[in-house]
Structure formats: structure tokens, C-alpha cells
Amino acid sequence: MKKSFINGIIYTSDKNLPFAEAVIIDGRKISAVGIYDDLREEIKSSDEIIDLKGKLMLPGFTDSHLHLMYGAESLTQLDLSKVNSKAKFRAEVIKYLEENKNKNQIIGFGWDENLFLQDGIPTKEWIDDLTGKVPFYATRMDIHMALVNSEALIAAGIDSNTTDPIGGSIQRDNKGNPTGILKDSAMDLVKKIFKQDSKNSKETDFEKAVQYLHRNGITSVHDISNIGDYSFYESLAEKGKLNLRINSIPSIQKMEIHSELFVESKYPELLRCKTVKAFSDGSLGSSTAWFFEEYLNELGNFGLPTEIFQTGYIKELVQFADEKGIQLAIHAIGNRANSEVISLCESLNQKFGIRDRRFRIEHLQHIRRSDIERVRKEKIIASVQPLHLVTDADQIDSRLSPDVINESYSLRTLLDSQIKLAFGSDWTVVEPSVIKGIDAAVNRNTRVGKKHWLASQCISVKEAIDAYTISPAFASFEENIKGSITPGKLADFVILSENIFKIPLNEISSIEVISTYFNGELVYAKQ
Q1: What is the pTM of this model?
Q2: Backbone phi, then psi, for 156, in 5-degree steps?
Q3: Cα maximum dimension of the chain
Q4: Is residue 299 within 8 Å of residue 287, measured between CB atoms?
Q5: Which of 144, 229, 355, 396 has its CA 20 to 30 A from that of 445?
Q6: Are 288 and 144 in contact (CB under 8 A)?
Q7: What does each C-alpha distance from 352 to 318, 324, 345, 411, 475 come to in angstroms?
Q8: Long-range residue pairs from 341-345, CB within 8 A, at least 24 positions apart, any chain
Q9: Binning pLDDT at 50, 70 and 90, where does residue 381 land?
Q10: Torsion angle, CA of 36/243/480/378, rounded to 10 degrees?
Q11: Are 183 and 175 in contact (CB under 8 A)?
């Protein structure tokens, strides 16, 4: 079916023709882009003409880093992201229990102790009397720390005699007893006791998640996935139920990795799995991000490198993946972690020669200026989550020195160094709102009122949009099929309520997604 989009402002993310007046699609692909008068006759022959009514059309957004199935599951889990006191925390648990009386386990997410500093870090005593014999597990907003109740600790066999796993920490009181707080790999000790949802429930949750993403204008994702997710997505594609393009990036810890996944996709426009993720450190909020400098609030603590970095096993793992032609995406938040990950990339280029690896660093939050040139030289892609700075900036002064703070979320410096930025949300860490992400990158206003935090690192609206469109497509080796409104590419679009290029910068967050098109079909329309 031939459709024409006219009477709007069209930003293409294509440097050869940044703006256009009309777009024509034929089926699921774009056939023509240009000036209305040049396309007038072809537009007349369209089966459908869609009047944009002066609104702004952009390429469909890509979230370059999220946890899709975690996000899908979170839509029916205990949401603690708005909690701002111990009393409110307990009230949300009580409310959830009342609404889910038959639950044999409770899984929650999103709490942030920075919103209730007066009450301190939560402990199992906050919830034990409410949850009784029902295991409870709720992750902090960064997914690098979790609160569990006594029942979950007992079921997992964790007590005062349990040693900390490598790359993790069991928080203890002054008598050596677990408080209920687990960090990083220690969380895995408890995760295993929680049952997975049924396949039918999984499909329902997934469908709701895709609808949620479409409401945010997102048509593609880079999914930090679990093994098994890809086959689930493939089963949906086989049934014609996959209305989202997924670049599946499983996390790995061992070399016998699931190599059977890294084959040519049966649905190349919808699914790919040619990238793996590994972790080098934890997070700032959990004080496990790995720095050269110690934390101001925890003297002697420089963060927590993961087990594969502590043992050096990461070198074998990276070489193993690279030899198979698999793209690498490594999580690094602290400046020491980022420096070590850059060294890994350098070693690959030195040992195996330079090729189009498109090595990715996930987060790249804190990086020394001297290391940015190394990132540029190695052509590393910076996969950054701008909305994280909104929350991190409010807690950072008590944790890091001014010199380290000044090298945080260096978006302007990265772009000026010709480093590609691919933006994402890390949902469920924050919501997958591209509009809020653009606002964060452009304005850098924090949650509790800091205005233009590290203002010299603000970027332009155009640069932020490109980081959600053409640059993510490049990051997944898909720039030839999507990421811009260009003839021959897939017809994925988003239409906004306001012209984001003209609206005052302080009003960006008020913009809404009016409609989303996937494969040329309307998949979301604001009522």
C-alpha cells in the first residue's frame, strides 16, 4: 500500500537531506523523501494521504540500552520508584499485597534511598512483618542492589556465615547478620528462588511493554537480554506478533556462551543477536562503580570490579567473542572501569588488527579527559543514558570529589571528539521516555532542582535526536535499513505534538508523542 505524509515538518536524521516536506512509503519501506512540489504527482497516486497538520515527524526512536523483559515484567510488579519515606515504602507494600492476595512471591523495583535519606537504607525489618512467609525481592533503581526479606534469605541459605561472592556484597549489621541488602553478584544468590511467569503471562506482559514503548515513539530497542529471550522473540515473530525491532544483547560470564544464538536471523529486519555484554563494575548509587579515587562517603572504597575483571578472565572472554566476530558491549560506570575497558579494546586492535568492531561501552558515565582521546582513537561507541544524570547529579556531591564530578556525563566533549553517542534508558532503571532523555541531554536539569548541571556538557536538540535514531542504527550495524527517513529504509516514524526545534528548551519535557508508525502502519495514536 502506498502512503504519503504531507503538510508537516520532517526531520530525517539523514545528513544529505536533513529536512523534507513530504515522505512517500510503499508497503513497509520508504520510497521517496523530498520537497512537496517535486513529489506532487507521485503523492496524487497514493492509496492514502496523511496530513501531518504542521506537526514534526522524526525517524522512529531507538532505545539503545534497556532490559525489555524486566520492563515487561515490571508493569505488574511492585513499583517503588515514587517512594519518599519509610512509611510510604511500607504503604506501597501493603497496597500491593491487598491487590495481589494470591501472590506466592513479591518482586519489586525502583526504590532510591536518596528520596528518603532521613530513613536510611532500607532493611528487612521494614517489610518482614508485612510479608511473613512470602519471599520478597525489590531492586534499587539501578538494579545493582536489592532488598530482600528474611524469608528470601532463609530460602537462599544466606546467614551470618555466608561469605560474600566475588563481585558482590551481603550487607551486615554490627553483629554480622545480613540486613537484607544485597549488592551486585550477591543478588544472584536470591534471584534463583523466584519462579518465572508462565508463557501466556509472558506474552501478555510483552505485548503491554511494546504498547508502552510505542507510546514513547520507540520502534527499535537494544535489549540487554537473558538467554532464552531471543527464542521467545523469535516465536513471536513466527506468529506475526513482533511489532518491535530487537537487537538482543545477552550478558555473558563464561566462554561457552550460547554461540548457537549468533547465527543469521530468520527475521533480519526484526531480530538480530550478534552482540554480547559483560560487566566491569557496578553503579554509582550502590557505591560499586569502580574508580581510581575512593568514595568520599566510604573511605577506602574504590568500588567493586566484577569477578571476571578481578580474575582477569575478561581478557579470555573478550578474545573468544572477538574471534567469532561477535560485537562487544561492556558496562563501565566508574573512571577506573572505563579505563580498563578501553585497554581491552586497544588490546584487540593490537593483537588481531583494526576492523569495524564497533566496540561499545555501556554507560561511560565517568571518564578521565585523557581517556576520551583513547575512546576516539579506538572508534568506541558511547552507549549513554542521559536520564541517569537527572538522578545521579543529586547524590554525587557526597560521593565523589569535584575533579571526578567534573568528568561526569561528558556528552559535549565526547561529541566534539567525534565519538558516536547512542542513547537509551536502561529501563527499568528509569522510564523509557525519549522526550525526557532529550530534555536531560539538552538541559541537564536534575530531579531536585539543579539547573544546567555541568552546563558546558549540554548538547543540541539535533544531536540528541540523532543519538536516538541514526547513531543507534550504526551501533547495531543497521544504518543501511533504519535510523533515518531515507528512501529504501524501513518506514518507522514518530510524530510529535510540538516542533522540538522551535519550542523553548525549558518546555521540551512537555512535548508528547502524537503517533507512532512501524513498518508503515499506525501502531499508536494519542487519544
Answers
A1: 0.91
A2: -90, -5
A3: 81
A4: no
A5: 144
A6: yes
A7: 12, 12, 11, 30, 21
A8: 341/280, 342/371, 342/374, 342/375, 342/378, 342/380, 344/314, 344/315, 344/318, 345/378, 345/380
A9: very high
A10: 130
A11: no
User: What are the cell numbers at 256?
Assistant: 561457552
CB within 8 Å of 229: residues ≥ 6 apart: 68, 69, 223, 248, 250
Query: How much is the average pLDDT of 73-89?
Result: 94
In which element (H, E) is residue 276 found?
Answer: strand 275-279
Cell of 468: 536516538
Q: By mean pLDDT, which of 164-173, 187-196, 367-376, 495-504 is the weakest?
A: 187-196
CA distances from 248 to 98, 207, 244, 245, 489 (A): 36, 17, 12, 9, 21
Residue type at 237 in one-letter notation: A
User: Average pLDDT of the chain?
Assistant: 95
Mean pLDDT of 413-417: 99
pLDDT at 177 over 70: yes
Exposure string of 464-474, with b = 16+ CB inside 10 Å and e = fewer, is: bbbbbbbbbbb
State the Cα–Cα distance between residues 238 and 226, nearest whole angstrom.
20
Judge whether 156 and 189 are in contact, CB under 8 Å.
Answer: yes
Q: Is the pLDDT of residue 165 over 60?
A: yes
Residue 103: per-residue pLDDT: 87
Q: List, in order of start, the domains of the chain with CATH numbers.
A: 105-191 (3.10.310.70)
Residue 196, pLDDT score: 67
Task: Assign 260 a pLDDT band (cuts: 50, 70, 90).
Answer: low
Residue showing cell 535514531: 469
Least Cα distance to 97 among 69, 127, 140 occurs for: 127
pLDDT digits (tens, 9 = 90+) for 146-162: 999 999 999 999 999 99
> Between helices 335-352 and 369-377, what is the axis angle to 10°?
30
Among the listed residues 207, 214, 149, 141, the one whose alpha carbon sits nearest the alpha carbon of residue 178: 149
Closest CA relative to residue 244, chosen from 267, 221, 268:
221
When pLDDT is cut at 50, 70 and 90, the band that residue 199 belongs to is low
